[in-house]
């Protein structure tokens, strides 16, 4: 072998040795990174949530907070109790979070989520997570937790229908009063934000054994999924300062599981009302509660933010053909999938996410733009501080 060829071979063998050494050094690092990725993918977020009974006041301040005045004739159609009217307080059911599986202690409410009202607690997941919810039914009717968006198997769907399953795959469908069930949901890539989304998206969960009755009684809540790598340890998006969830719906108390109990407890002549309730159109109208998170006429608390904050709004609607809602913010604008607007269209079952950077301080109106819904009290206030 001549000298020049020997030199080339020597240089190549030297480079090969350097590459081998480099690979040996990188193997522990790569192993650690793979382990970290695996740890992220295997993270389980655990919740203990019960469906509980409660007395719900749709207007706890006792006045129309939009006008600042006492309720008048128009408002009293919905909020005034009487001999043949239930009024503004109803027995309802709601999802509430507990500290552990004994369901002995309800978890303290986070001030950031004061505005949730009748809604259940926020369930969070980062893409790659598993969500495990131990559910207890503390109401008097069968209930469940059916999620939107996340991956689940038949034992965690929370919906009874003729799907060909049996045994343990049916135990989740309708949890009886006093019963418990553990739901397992996977937060896969298809559950997270898409190409036009921000760092998080909204889904919801609700009871499904008798969906119209269950949701009108109050069993619905938000499920928020954050893109992998974009979440804080608690699952909230890193690039957002404040989050709000608002549900626009007409709670039809005529379709509640607890209509008869509400008539017995809150009307002056329950026997008379029970006898003619189906034919009394005025009575039925009085039980259509046009609410934002279960509040009427500006009674929703907690929508407060600072000027210049990155605020994310998650919007939900459920209901029937009257539940065509158009939430509108006064004084501010939002971005939805890159489009600038100050009003969003919601149909029953809609789940939408918009971003706001408030720039005008003050207290502002936030309401459905449907005229009939305005008259019936589907209005709230939000405040931007300097």
Task: Describe the fold and architecture.
This protein has helices spanning 3-41, 73-79, 211-217, 259-266, 270-276, 281-286, 371-375; strands spanning 44-57, 63-64, 69-70, 89-97, 123-126, 130-137, 146-147, 180-186, 200-206, 220-226, 242-252, 288-292, 304-306, 311-317, 327-329, 334-336, 339-341, 351-356, 362-368, 379-385. The chain has a four-stranded mixed β-sheet. Strands 5-10-9-7 form a four-stranded mixed β-sheet. The chain starts with a helix and ends with a strand. The protein is globular. The model is unreliable at 33-41 (pLDDT under 50). The protein is an alpha+beta fold and 386 residues long. 41% of the residues are buried. Strand 2 and strand 3 form a beta hairpin. It has two domains: 1-35; 44-385, Cupredoxins -  blue copper proteins (Immunoglobulin-like), CATH 2.60.40. It has seven helices and 20 strands.
Write the layout of secondary structure elements.
Layout: H1 3-41, E1 44-57, E2 63-64, E3 69-70, H2 73-79, E4 89-97, E5 123-126, E6 130-137, E7 146-147, E8 180-186, E9 200-206, H3 211-217, E10 220-226, E11 242-252, H4 259-266, H5 270-276, H6 281-286, E12 288-292, E13 304-306, E14 311-317, E15 327-329, E16 334-336, E17 339-341, E18 351-356, E19 362-368, H7 371-375, E20 379-385
Helix pairs in contact: 4-5
